[in-house]
């Protein structure tokens, strides 16, 4: 029924209404249609059809305006008016300004999200306790905060994970990881052993760390590059290896990289390995159980990568498949020593050098800060401080570091990568975000 039909009600039932004239033919009266010509009848039919079409069009337009106009989502603000396009500016560039930041940047390029206002005071107090080396108090406060604040804010959990990582307490880490996975319905985080076992007092290296970035095809042509890497290892106590940009592997390339990893570990050089998980997945896609005529090199490289990642379960499963394929005794798992894993930043240009911060910053810091100044002076645009081994920063030392970074930030960008969440909370409290971008590691 059209809209106009509601106005088409008969009014004959109303009192006082004038009766319509009787248009029925009387007996013996000739039909009026018979008096019309064929042309008149055709013209009247055309007029009737045109009138009906106009009524249908008006009804359709009114229905669309009334019922089909889209309403804004509940809680949304008024629709933004698109600004006029300036001369010389492409018309398709302005709409990007209305997109959320997370749609324009990858997760790896974004600093850590801010802490919710409800948990900020507790997190700041915990960060101060940890900075002052009050480990037992820090753990007690974190455990007490899980029940309430930890229901929605994962930062409390991440700080507790890092506390156990720093202390070398893998059993406690694994226990809380199960609760974390159940709470947030996600996979539990994996344990990453510290470079130095808990309790070792020897000073750790700090300074410029050479970085070797592998990309493209890993084949026999990588041999000269690996030789240069071994030479650099003799001159530097710490090396960083980037594997995430490798796209294809061959048996020859796997054999060469495997031999290099063995020699680096035998020399007891400290290694920061980024993208090892991605390379392991790539190598795994090239092997086939039971194919005995294939090279063993990809199998052995995969086992070596699982050892670097400290993934004992994956190592044992792969070792059994390797044993079945080649009818040999399975190799034994050796926990990694002086190896740390990191995340590769694929959306940014790879840095060939970065400044590695020591495991603990406290006491006399003049020599460390002078070295940072020298590194910053030699850097072109970005001063990249690698915090993958940084376990704790004393409160007063953190304040002094902030003051030392302010002049550098006046002319260059500063990034602190792979922070643990306890140190990141302290740096946020002191105002490091005014001079640098903070990138805590991901769980």
UniProtKB/TrEMBL annotation:
InterPro entries xref list: MlaB-like_STAS (IPR058548), STAS_dom (IPR002645), STAS_dom_sf (IPR036513)
Domain of life: Bacteria
Domain STAS residues, every copy: 368-443
Matches recorded under PROSITE patterns: STAS
Signal peptide: none
Transmembrane annotation, as ranges: none
Region (Disordered): 1-43
Pfam families attached to this UniProt entry: STAS_2 (PF13466)
Stated name of the protein: STAS domain-containing protein
